[in-house]
Design a protein that fits this description.
This protein is an alpha+beta fold. It has one domain. The chain is built from 3 helices and 2 strands; from the N terminus they run αββαα. Strands 1-2 form a two-stranded antiparallel sheet. A hairpin with a 2-residue loop joins strand 1 and strand 2. The longest helix is centred in the middle third of the chain and has 18 residues. The protein is elongated, with a radius of gyration of 21 Å.
Length: 85
Protein backbone atom coordinates (compact mmCIF):
# COMPACT_ATOMS: atom_id res chain seq x y z
CA UNK A 1 0.00 0.00 0.00
CA UNK A 2 1.26 3.44 -0.91
CA UNK A 3 0.92 6.33 1.49
CA UNK A 4 0.34 9.84 0.12
CA UNK A 5 0.63 13.19 1.89
CA UNK A 6 -1.66 16.16 1.39
CA UNK A 7 0.07 19.54 0.95
CA UNK A 8 -0.89 22.66 2.89
CA UNK A 9 -3.18 23.77 0.05
CA UNK A 10 -5.00 20.40 -0.10
CA UNK A 11 -3.22 18.86 -3.10
CA UNK A 12 -2.25 15.21 -3.32
CA UNK A 13 0.35 13.99 -5.80
CA UNK A 14 -0.37 10.60 -7.36
CA UNK A 15 2.97 8.86 -8.01
CA UNK A 16 3.83 8.02 -11.63
CA UNK A 17 3.75 4.28 -10.93
CA UNK A 18 0.14 4.49 -9.69
CA UNK A 19 -0.92 6.83 -12.52
CA UNK A 20 0.48 4.36 -15.02
CA UNK A 21 -1.22 1.37 -13.34
CA UNK A 22 -4.55 3.17 -13.29
CA UNK A 23 -4.30 4.56 -16.81
CA UNK A 24 -4.40 8.20 -15.71
CA UNK A 25 -3.10 10.41 -18.53
CA UNK A 26 -2.17 14.11 -18.30
CA UNK A 27 -5.18 16.42 -18.72
CA UNK A 28 -7.62 13.50 -18.88
CA UNK A 29 -10.65 13.51 -16.58
CA UNK A 30 -10.48 11.60 -13.31
CA UNK A 31 -13.79 10.82 -11.65
CA UNK A 32 -13.89 11.06 -7.86
CA UNK A 33 -16.47 9.65 -5.46
CA UNK A 34 -16.74 8.72 -1.81
CA UNK A 35 -17.66 5.06 -1.26
CA UNK A 36 -18.01 3.59 2.19
CA UNK A 37 -15.83 6.34 3.66
CA UNK A 38 -13.08 5.94 1.05
CA UNK A 39 -12.07 8.24 -1.79
CA UNK A 40 -12.28 6.37 -5.12
CA UNK A 41 -10.54 7.68 -8.26
CA UNK A 42 -11.60 6.32 -11.65
CA UNK A 43 -10.23 7.03 -15.14
CA UNK A 44 -12.55 7.91 -18.02
CA UNK A 45 -11.87 4.52 -19.63
CA UNK A 46 -12.70 2.68 -16.40
CA UNK A 47 -15.87 4.73 -15.99
CA UNK A 48 -16.99 3.91 -19.54
CA UNK A 49 -16.34 0.20 -18.95
CA UNK A 50 -18.36 0.34 -15.71
CA UNK A 51 -21.28 2.00 -17.52
CA UNK A 52 -21.16 -0.55 -20.35
CA UNK A 53 -21.16 -3.42 -17.84
CA UNK A 54 -24.07 -1.84 -15.93
CA UNK A 55 -26.24 -1.53 -19.04
CA UNK A 56 -25.22 -4.94 -20.40
CA UNK A 57 -26.34 -6.47 -17.08
CA UNK A 58 -29.55 -4.46 -17.10
CA UNK A 59 -30.37 -5.53 -20.67
CA UNK A 60 -29.59 -9.15 -19.81
CA UNK A 61 -31.98 -8.97 -16.84
CA UNK A 62 -34.63 -7.60 -19.20
CA UNK A 63 -34.01 -10.43 -21.66
CA UNK A 64 -32.23 -8.30 -24.26
CA UNK A 65 -28.98 -9.69 -25.68
CA UNK A 66 -25.96 -7.36 -25.25
CA UNK A 67 -25.25 -5.42 -28.44
CA UNK A 68 -28.91 -5.42 -29.50
CA UNK A 69 -30.06 -2.07 -30.85
CA UNK A 70 -33.26 -1.23 -29.01
CA UNK A 71 -34.02 1.60 -31.41
CA UNK A 72 -33.75 -0.77 -34.40
CA UNK A 73 -36.12 -3.20 -32.66
CA UNK A 74 -38.59 -0.40 -31.94
CA UNK A 75 -38.51 0.77 -35.56
CA UNK A 76 -39.06 -2.80 -36.79
CA UNK A 77 -42.03 -3.20 -34.41
CA UNK A 78 -43.55 0.08 -35.61
CA UNK A 79 -43.16 -0.97 -39.23
CA UNK A 80 -44.90 -4.29 -38.53
CA UNK A 81 -47.76 -2.47 -36.82
CA UNK A 82 -48.05 -0.02 -39.74
CA UNK A 83 -48.08 -2.89 -42.25
CA UNK A 84 -51.02 -4.52 -40.38
CA UNK A 85 -53.14 -1.35 -40.71
Amino acid sequence: MTSLTMSDNGRVLIPAELREKLGFKPKSPIYVEVKDGSLVLTSAAQRSAQRRAYFDNLFTELGVAPGTSLSDELIADRRLEAAKE
